[in-house]
Design a protein that fits this description.
Layout lengths: L1 H31 L7 E15 L4 E7 L9 H5 L7 E6 L5 E11 L11 E12 L12 E10 L4 H5 L9 E3 L6 E5 L2 E3 L25 E3 L2 E4 L5 H11 L26 H11 L6 H9 L3 E5 L5 E5 L50 E6 L18 E4 L16 E3 L15 E3 L3
Antiparallel strand pairs: 1-2, 1-6, 2-5, 3-4, 3-6, 4-5, 7-8, 8-11, 9-10, 11-17, 12-13, 14-15, 15-16
Length: 428
């Protein structure tokens, strides 16, 4: 007897294992696919109120009020809404209860053109009526309406909804801490430097024949639209107990210059400000691209090879210098001006303002020669940091988008060489 019971237990266990193997994949598949992923609901496409009935042949006239789905359709498109031999539900207006069904045989449009300003249009429908056995209404009356419905997904799995979709980044953002406006410099290839004078430190040997290997690809980032001002830097010094610039008397910037760019800062002071505010100092290439634009357009030849068209400019706004758009020596201002007084006509392709003249700006890049350029210079190396943008005391040549200078003598903690603006990475 015990052997029989033992044999039955083994047989029962074996059947359970077989059953689990058969049901397992289906259950796993069911877990992977949400039951809501393909759920649909009936959505009203159009509704036609019966306004006339011709009982001898069962012709009915319906009035259809426009909705969002059919508002802009033409007569031909509206005629396609009525499908021959399709069964349409007939419902009572007041109760919306189903009273029967209408089998369409033909639709007649009395109007050749639909007035787009009209709220409704009328159609004559010919067909057969079949009353609902549960309804006491045996015929179509003007107390009924005919409607058509379409299936629409009312729930889509988030992974399916966002698949293949991306939200474009905002072109302008406000930083949450310093409340400064920042503009987007979009990702892409970038042509830097110049290719005409090999004796200059900004010479790019590949400038005149750019290719995919010599161009720089920079990820998207945001850069301050304006340089950091005296007032903004004063707030930082008050919050962090940092020493103010030496030309400020009694720790106060010159009267009336609260919106002028802060100047005479060391690179280490700029780094400290960047850490405090949650940004970083731009690289040299980031600064130049923000000031100049990408500099190239990618094109395709007939043989499907790719070539790059050079569209670089000398200044943020173009090739011709304008003293009204750049605060340099030629402008005769002899001092910095408010960052908000600079003309918007002089803004860069990305919307940054004041990137030529006014105040020089620190970058985080070491002052080194560009790849492939060989020039004897004792200044090049990981000693000094690149300074860009020129200033009110320099000429227009030093304020071009490609002009390079440097700071850090005797070191980066003592050389009060420039002002700054900061950048923030765009996180996709």
């Amino acid at each position: 007897m015990y052997r029989a019971i033992y044999f039955l237990l083994i047989l029962f266990t074996f059947n359970l294992v077989v059953l689990a193997q058969e049901l397992g994949p289906e259950e796993e598949q069911a877990d992977d696919v949400s039951p809501f992923a393909t759920t649909k609901k009936k959505v009203l496409a159009w509704r036609g109120e019966v306004v006339g009935v011709y009982k001898n042949r069962l012709w009915i006239k319906i009035r259809i009020y426009r909705n969002q789905k059919i508002a802009k359709k033409s007569v031909d498109e509206l005629q396609n809404l009525f499908v021959v031999n399709k069964v349409y539900p007939v419902k009572q207006k007041e109760t919306q209860l189903n009273v029967g069904s209408f089998i369409l045989r033909e639709s007649v449009f009395e109007e050749k053109r639909i007035n787009q300003k009209s709220n409704f249009f009328e159609v004559i429908l010919k067909g057969d009526y079949k009353p609902d056995p549960n309804s006491k209404i045996s015929s179509i009356t003007t107390d009924t309406y005919i409607a058509d419905y379409v299936d629409e997904d009312f729930y889509v799995e988030p992974n399916q909804f966002f698949k293949g979709r991306s939200t474009p980044p905002r072109k302008i953002v406000i930083h949450p801490k310093d409340r400064k406006e920042m503009v987007l410099v979009s990702r892409g290839l970038f042509l830097y430097g110049q290719g005409n004078d090999a004796s200059q430190d900004n010479f790019n040997p590949y400038f005149n024949e750019p290719n995919i290997g010599s161009l720089k690809e920079l990820p998207s980032f945001y850069i301050d639209k304006y340089e950091v001002t005296n007032q903004e830097y004063k707030y930082f010094t008050d919050q962090t107990n940092t020493i103010t610039p030496p030309h400020w008397i009694d720790g106060r910037f010159p009267a009336g210059e609260e919106n002028h760019p802060v100047i005479n800062l060391t690179y280490r002071e700029v780094e400290k400000y960047a850490r405090w505010v949650g940004k970083r100092v731009p690289t040299e290439f980031e600064w130049e691209k923000a000031a100049r634009g990408a500099g190239v357009i990618q094109n395709t030849n007939r043989d499907e090879t790719i070539y790059f068209q050079n569209i670089t400019t000398k200044y943020p706004y173009g090739d011709d210098f304008d003293p009204l758009l750049c605060n340099t020596r030629e402008s005769n201002q002899r001092k910095t001006v408010s960052v908000y007084e600079l003309s918007k006509e002089g803004e860069s392709p990305y919307g940054a303002i004041g990137m030529c003249g006014n105040a020089p700006e620190w970058t985080s890049s070491w002052y080194e020669l560009y790849p492939g350029h060989h020039l004897q210079s004792f200044s090049c190396g990981k000693i000094y940091k690149v300074v860009r943008g020129g200033s009110f005391s320099e000429n227009s040549k030093n304020a071009t988008t490609i002009a390079r200078s440097y700071g850090g003598i005797p070191n980066l903690s003592e050389d009060r060489r420039a002002g700054f603006r900061l950048v923030m990475d765009y996180r996709e």
